[in-house]
Each structure stands twice: as structure tokens, then as C-alpha cells.
Amino acid sequence: MPAFHQILETTPRGLYCPAGDFYVDPHYPVDRAVVTHAHTDHARWGCKRYLAAARSEHLLRMRMNDDAEFQFLDYGEAITIGGVRVSFHPAGHMLGSAQVRLELAGKVAVVGGDYKLGTDSTCHPWEPVPCHLFVTETTFGLPVYRWEPQQQTIDAINDWWRVERDAGKCCVLYGYAVGKSQRLIAGLDPSLGTIYTHGAVEKGNEAYRKTGVELPETTFVGSVDRKQDWSGSIVVAVPSAHHTPWMRKFGNVSTAMASGWMAVRGARRRRSVDRGFVMSDHVDWPTLLEAVELCDPEIVWATHGYSSVVARYLQEQGRNAEVIDSRSRADSESDETDSAGNEEDPE
């Protein structure tokens, strides 16, 4: 710990770099924030200055206050703040997501943010960044969480849509508005029917398209006449729309949730949806361990989820690992939903 205290330390406001006088993903508004990605539990509204990866620009500007001051860096580009060399490296979580690399006096700390390994057409893939200190999320840090190949899940979603379309139903697919929904839309087969979107999802689509991400054509639900026949189509919506009056317009529906929590028995029942598809934008158990091996740090800080389980397992494997609390209890939004369907917790 002493060797890193000038690079990174935990504080009530979040991870703080004393030498550079900035916070990484602060819990509360601060003067200078270095952010890993545009989800609002990481990019806190109200900060004076933001530093982030360039590919997150449209998403951040969409979500932040107009008078905020932004600076953006390409992946791999570095600047020096208070003697600390700061750079961003792909995290694979969503568009513009990044790991933050901090280097001072020959020591390197990497804040992984939220990340996943594997392919995703909507964002740059995660890259290992060798370091002395690695801060890793542990949202799904239990051996039970093991994701199937993405294409297998996408094929299952399209098969569900095809069957329900032929039965004359409208499919409603739930996923977080920014990140998850665009990943789902990118995999949908537009030859099956029209893809409609909730307003929050469509705003995310616009930012993705402005950044150059190709998505199938989508239509905002609010732009369509109320007498529209929705049968055979699919609507990509946020989970909070479930069981609301907004849903009535679609008539006979089949509902589904795309979430890592769908891997847990009973999660679909608690969400009261017809189908559950296991898809997460976070590392599962085996890829979390793979990431640690590839970065090969001297010290691992585990946070955001099953941190004690992960830290204990790594210790048993001979690694120096400890638990830190780097997430605010005041978080009001995150990138996914927990097994009970609460949008306040990460998925």
C-alpha cells in the first residue's frame, strides 16, 4: 500500500490520486474527475472538469451539465497531471469505456472500471494493461457466473422473436438504456420485423451512431401513431418500463430480460418476464481471473460486488489481494439491474 499512496488511495469521495489531485469515477461532484465510462454511477453529474476516452464524448455530453469542461484522449494517448502519466485503454464494457492507467515514479496502477472480455461490435475489446496495482470490479465474482458465447445468446433472442412473431405477438426486450440495449440491437435480425425503441434507448442509439457505431434501423415508439399494429415487431425498452401503463399500447406481448442475473435460478420469476437471456457487459468468474493473470499485478484491489470472495480466492492462489469500498451507497443509476430487478445495483 505505501508504494502506491501517491498514485491512488480510497476516500469517502472515491478513488483519489493525491499527486495529480483528481478522482477516478468519484462518488460525488468534484473539481476534476477522470471517468472510465459514461454510465452515471461512474461519470458523476456536476463535476467541473472531466477527462475521459474520446469515444465516450457523445454519450458524456448527452448526460452531463452544459457548463462542464471536457477533455478527451484517444486510447493509448497520455497526458501528465501533477507528475502522473494518465492514459486510457479499452475496457470492452460499452462504447468509450476505458481502463485508467496511472504511472508515477516507475509504479503503475490501473483502474479497470467496468469491463468484459470477448468480442462486441459496439465497442473496442478489452486489452490487458500490465501493472503493479489492478483495481477490478467483482460484480459477478462467483463461480456460478459463466457466460455463453455472445452469438449463441443473440441467436436465442432472434429465435424467440421469430416464434413469438409467428404467434402474432409483440416482443418486448429489456436492457439498460445505454450500452446493453445497443449491444442487443446490433445483434437483432431486422429481416424478422421492425425494431422499435423506448425513448431512453433511442437517445443512446443516437450517440452511438454519431460515434460511428453501425446499428440496424430503429424507430422511436413515441413517433408512431397510437393505432399502430405492433404484432410481429420487437421493442427494446428499459427494465423500469415493465408493468407500466406505457406497455398497454403493444397489446399481446411476450417479454424478456437480457441480464447476467438471469444465470441465477429464480431471477426470471422475480422479474416476472416470459424469457430470460444471460448476457452481461461485465466479466464473469473465469474471465475475471483471466484478466488478473494477464495484467499480472503485485496487488489486486477488489470492489463492486462479490469482492470478498474474489479477494479470498486470489489470496489462496498466492496473490496479494484486498477488498476496497469504491462505490457510493448514493448511486442512483447503474448499467444493469440486480437479480431482484433493482436498477440501483450493477449488472
TrEMBL record:
Residues 333-347 have a biased composition (Acidic residues). One of its GO terms (molecular function) is RNA endonuclease activity. Residues 322-332 have a biased composition (Basic and acidic residues). Residues 320-347 are annotated as: Disordered. It is an enzyme of class 3 (hydrolase). Its EC number is 3.1.-.-. InterPro entries: MBL, RibonucZ/Hydroxyglut_hydro, Xnuc_lig_assoc. The keyword tRNA processing does not apply. Keywords: Hydrolase. This is Ribonuclease.
